[in-house]
Amino acid sequence: MIPYSDGISREWIVTNGIGGYASSTSIGANTRAYHGLLIASLSPPVDRWLLLSSLDETVNGIELANHQYPGVVHPQGFRYLISFKAEPVPTYLYRVNDVEVAKQIFMIQGENTTVIRYHISGDSHIRIMPLVTSRCFHAVSGRPEMRQEAMERGTLLRSRCDLYLSSDRARYVRDEMWYHNFEYEAERARGLGFVEDLLCPGWFEADVENELDLSITASTGMVEANDSMLECEINRRRMIISLLPEEIRSLAIAADSFLVRRGSGMSIIAGYHWFDDWGRDAMIALPGLLLCTGRFDDARAVLRTFSEHVRDGLVPNDLGAGSYNTVDASLLFIRAVCEYFRFTSDQSFIRELWPVLMNIIECYTTKTPVGHMDSDFLIASSAGATWMDARVDGLCVTPRAGKCVEVNALWYEALRSLEEISGATGMEWRWGGLAERVRRSFRRFWNPAGYLYDTVDPYDGSVRPNQVIAVAFSRGLLSLDRTRMVVRNATEELLTPYGLRTLSPRDPAYIGRYEGNPRERDRAYHQGTVWPWLIGPYITAYLRANRYSKRSRMHAISLLRPLLEEQRYGMGTIAEVYDGDPPHRPGGCISQAWSVAEVIRAFLEAKNGIERRC
User: Fold this and answer.
1) Domain 4-236 has what CATH class?
2) Disulfide-capable partner of 575 in 315, 437, 497, 586 (CB 3.0 to 4.6 Å)?
């Protein structure tokens, strides 16, 4: 038996490549409004709709489900759960007296379809009761209007989005009933709505003699499940991990989950359960998710998608919402393009994107809506335009208005790299000498205390990880001695087993726990909270500071072990954030693209001993 508290502390997710997913906990208890067996993406990869919450099994009268109601968990099927494993697909194994039930869950790639496959061993009668709704996945709601229509092997539930429920070997019995007051404890803890009602439209049932395989299919269209579907999905996953080191194979599957179709192109979901495809996140994540894993065609498709949405020199922050309010996304886009070229030497794609790249540089040298090049050739930006963009009551918690250290390091690297690539490809470059002027002005960021200012104009000496990003995402801005001093400062004040804190604990503004309602969490978001993705820039900076010695590479891998072996929260993946204070509880999204990507990239960099090549 898996204890209830342990079981709900670990979550799994499988995705379908278009923004939809299925997700729950390791005991099958839904603790989030975002949990369910079919969350469909109606306008891939966004407009996600929760349709099938759960399938509740009863074997010879014994209930295997787990639901939180006010003051009680009922039924308590976890008492019959023998084991759970998340790979190759989420698999539950139950034992009820002499009967064993194995339950496997997977999705069909490119479709809003979840298949739940059962293998029942032992004479028995099994009843499988779907609990359904029809709502936006972001929030619980009242009773949606749903109309049921009979099908030959199941039922069709009509609402804003049609839900087809069918089985290959179980008969369907219609018997509608609403169940009330399901509670989602994770949403209660986050200060959000946490109670809803769910409809049981009927049930599937079968009599088992000796053993039986059967499947339940939930889909937005008519789909007939067959026994080869699971094998196809497992083989697809095997192909993804086949050429990668064993240590990162689970993360390679997680990396695949973020890649989604958008129109005729591709994009990257920032995190599950609730994020869309964000420009900044996608560009930071792309090298680790796609270049290091050899998925160059996918990388090219993602870069093309974002290039088509550049406006006034800006890559959108939120591609779905069409928001253009970030100063760094465009510079990170250039970095990702340059990394793609270093991996592939694909001159034709560089020529295709060159007008977009030149437009970005032109806009930054004049003025964009969020920043511009000042008289000292550094980029000055408005409040809330960097990745530390949390707001409370409309005000930036970490404004960072002025000239930000990592933004200007990215600016220098963009100029230097594009000038280098122009020489290799024969493309026109009109800003000769500008990178050197930026490099000279960047000296203003050096703090005599032995690290980099977070901003200049105004000067901000807060000890933050942005100085590490600046060192890792650029080359040639700091001497070796100063690089070592930045790494030492970050090691002493920011480093934890799960990434870097966003603010030194010595700072009076430091907040060590990421918890509470949205306002409380937003206050802590960049004021001490640990971000795992920052371990990637730290590892790069650390290896540079130690000239990629064998000893430093071994130590770098040891620093990544806690994240590589993490089994709390999201299984087989890496969370969005952790508490700044020990024991560093995970929080935020259970699976975050740049967390996964930067751990993959940093691991391969340390293992291979080659800077920024995987």
Assistant:
1) mainly beta
2) 586
